[in-house]
Amino acid sequence: MKWKKELISNILFEKNQKIEIHNEGSTMKKQIILLICAVLLTISACSKDDKPKDQATAETKAEYDKNESSQPAASGDEEAEETAAANDAENTSEEDASSENQSEEAKDYLTSHHQFVASEMTNLSEKEVSSMWGEPVRTEKIKFRYSGTSNFVPAVVHYYQNEKYAVTFVEGKAARLVYSVIDEEILFDDDKTKALELAGLPTDVEETTDTDTAFVWNDIGGVYEVTMFSKGELADYLYIILDEAYK
Prior knowledge:
eight-stranded antiparallel β-sheet, 23% strand, alpha+beta, single chain
């Protein structure tokens, strides 16, 4: 019996030893697996940390390269704009100078005797005319009909300087002008060009109509039509249609 008990004890001891060895092996495997997982997680975390840094570095470099490449272009654009602006200013100055020269050449007929320049009255406002001749001494409201139409529009006639000048304003713009020259005592037939000279008009243009009481010039001195009426032997007044639109 004793030997049986010892045999059973030995068998149980060996079995316990195997279980302990198995348990120790399992525990070691678990520890190894956990260690490997920890290492992998650490590597993954480092990779994630490095990726944003690398990405940020790459983006910063790309932005820097973009700025570097755009600066010369921007500088070139600015230089081009400055050059274009300078050319425009130069061209404008040349055009203005050319226009002034042409204007001076076109009006080389003006003399020191002219009291105003008829062509410069075209389309002036009431305020602009008042700045030349003062406030009107009286005013008439009329209706004006454009040539070739049946429509009437509001108009006004202002008289200036003791009615020496009368300007018809159509829709706020100077359209016609009556200039009294009776006080100048200009002989109607012999000295008629003196009246033209006073109105800033050329005197070497042939009249298109010649009657006993009126002379008519068309397209003279930058205005559409000028009619000189007589009063006895003297020139009475000039009736000037400033623009063809107001004929």
